[in-house]
């Protein structure tokens, strides 16, 4: 019926699978025809026993006959807690076939990131960003696939795959368009929930079509019955086989094996015996059959089920406490009874002598579930000890330790803490969390308990601020944290900030500062208090600004504490629109020879990245965009190299995009901000970092004249109230107001800009470049309330002159020119061009020159503005200048 399908009983799962195999054949045709063809993904879904594994085995045979490299892996119910277990199965054989230097060459920069997760390299740090590791694994497969074309990847029992593998598989499935690989995934429906179910759904969404396997029809069951027990099997007997098994291929094969072994005549008169035989072939009957093989064979099977993977006769013998000869005898008995089997050899895969696996996952599950509870726990404990004694690390032993009953075991707590550190080092925080949660259940000794909670909080710091908050608050509520206490408070305040709980972040560090005498510790906590208060989006106490100014006036930048205060003072002065020259001086004094001081780097944890974002932002709005770009580019480079692909890299991209936007490099800004949004989404929507990336992208699209796209982005990413409690750069209400005006919602836009005005007033100052609401509001009100518009423009100009940058003054003059008429408008527009030509903000310069060219009717000025607009990527400005030039009416 189907290519390569034998007619023996073992082929039962391939009966009536012609459609699935035809789809695979077509996919292989495309794959093998051209190395540049797009990849494809097929999902095979079916209940237990419907033949998914046998179908994948047949796909392997067909693919290998056509010259494909085939890599395969399989999830296991008892191994779901082992991070990267399935992806390691998939890739390790190919990687281990390479010399170490070859593997490093093929993986390139990703070797140090993906290598530890794959078990081929040592971790290079104490914590790896899980998203970066996932990206590294995707890149690793992409590079290896180009070497191995044509390549087929088979993933069986994906519903039992570990979370880390599912995250990689979902990410890889999204990138198959430009990669010539065939991926086939087999899974059961249901079985998992939460993140696992979401990731499996993402995989299914990438694969078309999804094949839902069905049970055998009565005709197919009859054909299989006669192929197994003889052509003389009558119709009534065959119908009863179908009725008893429901057409499940696995159940049918097992039942017919019992029929054959018992020499039951396949006739209607004996059909009544089939139900009893079926009960003996599965579930409780399987367990009874196992017991019938003897106590030693049963103990051997139990030990194999405990190990789950890497099942070898010698490992099972040690776990089951039997000698090698008895173990080999038991293995033979279990193989003869179709409970265990030797794995089928496949191309490129090396097998260990004495290696075994269960004939079917259903058998493995049934055997594992039949182990008495106390025996199961004890055997897991012995297995953990065996793995530890063989030097295979705490992380590998952890899955067994997780099954041991809590018993006040101090050594087990330390093993689990070590396992958590190993998991974090390879980018598996979920696995680390499970280990630490289990350590808490032991429980730890009182003097250790708070430290375990602290480590649990740190394990989720890069990925889940809300979970971090719970654990760190619990740790701080217990005695014994001692030397880690201040670090825990700082990390808690950072997590609160990134979870949009800014007021609580302020209270947390303020309360801890009150516990300490004057000195470096208290200074550090007070600095964080100033920092969090300084980025509050709604209100800032004038008294706080005065205290900060007084403290900073005594600082010369002699140590990091003084440098921190200088940065905080610079940011505060910038947000309030004080002298830009003073802002730059404060920032410069916080550096050492123009660079960040040791201990104040982007990955240093004592002071945090937020401080350096404030430093770069102060430079950005004080017109020192060269220094801002250098800082943020360094942040992106450092975080990329360190593998911090969560909050840190998202913010680095968001602020680098802001610097590009201010420079007028709109194309670079857009691409960088889009990357920031993608990274921010992985951490979670509605968090401050998400707002920064989204707001920057909308602002940049508006600057490029792509209003519809800006609105689409705003709608897609929820760029609308309620806003976060932190400052968002660029100013969120100003950008939202400008967007509303651009799409014709004038009244809503005015309301949004007036809300921005109230926020600026509550902060006790105004920087017309940082929050340009007054300029946009003045132009929006020009027709309906010219007096108020004029007053707003005058206030913006006064504040711009106080701040003193060319950009601020030039933008205020552009606004005044837009409200003026006649020769006065021309004069103001000319002055705006003069200031903005001297500023580093080339988009604003281009816009001012277009406006001046139109007001002065100057073809030369419009020509210059056209070139500037094109260089910036501001298509609408270029189109406006070109339209006036082409009509040519009244131009000089």
Automatic annotation (TrEMBL):
Cleaved signal peptide residues: none
Span of domain Orc1-like AAA ATPase: 15-184
SUPFAM superfamilies the UniProt entry points to: P-loop containing nucleoside triphosphate hydrolases (SSF52540), TPR-like (SSF48452)
Residue stretches in coiled coil: 492-519
Superkingdom of the source species: Bacteria
The keyword Nucleotide-binding is annotated on this UniProt entry: yes
Protein name: Orc1-like AAA ATPase domain-containing protein
Taxonomic source organism: Streptomyces canarius
């Amino acid at each position: 019926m189907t290519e390569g399908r034998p007619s023996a009983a073992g082929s039962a799962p391939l009966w009536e699978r012609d459609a699935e195999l035809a789809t695979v054949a077509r996919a292989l045709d495309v794959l093998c025809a051209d190395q540049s063809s797009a990849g494809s993904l097929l999902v095979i879904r079916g209940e237990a026993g419907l033949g998914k594994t046998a179908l994948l085995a047949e796909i392997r045979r067909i693919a290998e006959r056509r010259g494909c490299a085939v890599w395969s892996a399989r999830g296991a119910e008892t191994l779901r807690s082992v991070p990267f277990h399935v992806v390691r199965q998939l890739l390790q054989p190919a990687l281990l076939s390479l010399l170490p230097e070859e593997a490093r060459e093929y993986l390139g920069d990703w070797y140090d990131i993906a290598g530890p997760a794959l078990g081929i390299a040592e971790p290079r740090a104490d914590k790896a960003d899980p998203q970066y590791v996932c990206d590294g694994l995707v890149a690793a497969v992409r590079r290896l696939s180009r070497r191995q074309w044509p390549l087929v990847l088979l993933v069986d029992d994906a519903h039992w795959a570990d979370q880390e593998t599912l995250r990689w598989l979902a990410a890889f499935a999204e990138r198959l368009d430009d990669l010539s690989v065939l991926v086939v995934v087999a899974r059961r429906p249901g079985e998992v929930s939460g993140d696992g179910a979401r990731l499996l759904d993402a995989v299914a969404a990438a694969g078309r079509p999804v094949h839902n396997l069905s049970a055998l029809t009565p005709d197919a069951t009859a054909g299989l019955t006669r192929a197994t027990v003889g052509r003389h099997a009558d119709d009534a007997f065959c119908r009863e086989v179908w009725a008893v098994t429901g057409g499940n291929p696995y159940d049918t094969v097992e039942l017919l094996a019992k029929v054959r072994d018992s020499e039951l005549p396949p006739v209607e008169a004996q059909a009544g015996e089939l139900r009893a035989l079926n009960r003996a072939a599965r579930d409780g009957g399987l367990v009874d059959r196992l017991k019938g093989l003897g106590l030693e064979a049963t103990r051997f099977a139990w030990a194999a089920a405990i190990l789950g993977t890497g099942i070898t006769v010698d490992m099972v013998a040690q776990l089951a406490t039997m000698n090698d000869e008895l173990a080999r005898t038991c293995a033979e008995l279990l193989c003869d009874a179709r409970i265990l089997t030797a794995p089928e050899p496949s191309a490129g895969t090396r097998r260990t002598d004495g290696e075994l696996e269960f004939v079917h996952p259903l058998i493995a599950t049934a055997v594992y579930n039949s182990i008495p509870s106390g025996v199961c726990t004890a055997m897991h404990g012995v297995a953990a000890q065996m793995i530890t004694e063989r030097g295979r690390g705490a992380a590998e032993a952890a899955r067994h330790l997780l099954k041991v009953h809590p018993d006040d075991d101090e050594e087990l707590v330390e093993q689990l803490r070590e396992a958590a550190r190993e998991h974090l080092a390879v980018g598996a925080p979920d696995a680390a969390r499970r280990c630490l949660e289990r350590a808490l259940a032991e429980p730890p000794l009182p003097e250790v308990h708070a430290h375990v909670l602290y480590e649990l909080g740190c394990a989720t710091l890069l990925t889940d601020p809300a979970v971090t908050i719970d654990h760190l608050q619990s740790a701080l509520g217990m005695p014994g944290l001692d030397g880690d206490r201040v670090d825990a408070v700082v990390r808690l305040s950072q997590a609160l900030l990134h979870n949009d709980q800014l007021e609580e972040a302020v209270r947390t560090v303020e309360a801890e500062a009150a516990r300490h005498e004057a000195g470096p510790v208290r200074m550090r906590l007070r600095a964080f208090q100033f920092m969090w208060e300084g980025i509050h989006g709604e209100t800032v106490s004038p008294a706080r600004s005065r205290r900060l100014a007084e403290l900073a006036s005594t600082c010369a930048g002699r140590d990091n504490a003084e440098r921190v205060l200088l940065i905080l003072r610079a940011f505060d002065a910038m947000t309030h629109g004080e002298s830009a020259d003073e802002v730059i001086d404060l920032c410069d004094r916080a550096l050492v020879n123009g660079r960040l001081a040791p201990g104040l780097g982007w990955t240093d944890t004592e002071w945090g990245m937020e401080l350096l974002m404030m430093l770069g932002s102060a430079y950005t709005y004080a017109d020192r965009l060269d220094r801002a770009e250098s800082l943020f580019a360094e942040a992106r480079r450092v975080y990329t190299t360190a593998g911090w692909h969560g909050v840190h890299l998202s913010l680095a991209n968001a602020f680098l995009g802001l610097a590009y936007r201010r420079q007028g490099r709109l194309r670079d800004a857009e691409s960088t901000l889009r990357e920031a949004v993608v990274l921010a989404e992985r951490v979670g929507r509605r968090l401050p970092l998400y707002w920064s990336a989204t707001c920057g992208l909308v602002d940049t699209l508006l600057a490029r004249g792509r209003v519809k796209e800006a609105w689409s982005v705003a709608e897609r990413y929820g760029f609308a109230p309620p806003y976060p409690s932190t400052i968002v750069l660029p100013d969120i209400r100003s950008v939202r107001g400008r967007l509303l005006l651009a799409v014709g919602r004038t009244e809503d836009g005015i309301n949004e800009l007036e809300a921005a005005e109230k926020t600026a007033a509550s902060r006790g100052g105004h920087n017309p470049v940082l929050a340009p609401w007054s300029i946009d509001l003045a132009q929006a009100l020009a027709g309906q309330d010219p007096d108020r518009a004029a007053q707003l423009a005058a206030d913006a100009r006064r504040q711009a002159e106080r701040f003193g940058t060319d950009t601020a003054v030039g933008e205020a003059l552009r606004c005044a020119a837009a409200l003026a008429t006649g020769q006065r408008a021309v004069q103001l527009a000319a002055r705006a061009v003069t200031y903005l030509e001297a500023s580093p903000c080339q988009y604003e310069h281009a816009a001012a020159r277009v406006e001046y060219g139109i007001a002065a009717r100057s073809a030369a000025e419009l020509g210059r503005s056209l070139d500037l607009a094109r260089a910036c990527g501001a298509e609408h400005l270029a189109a406006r200048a070109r339209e006036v030039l082409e009509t040519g009416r009244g131009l000089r």
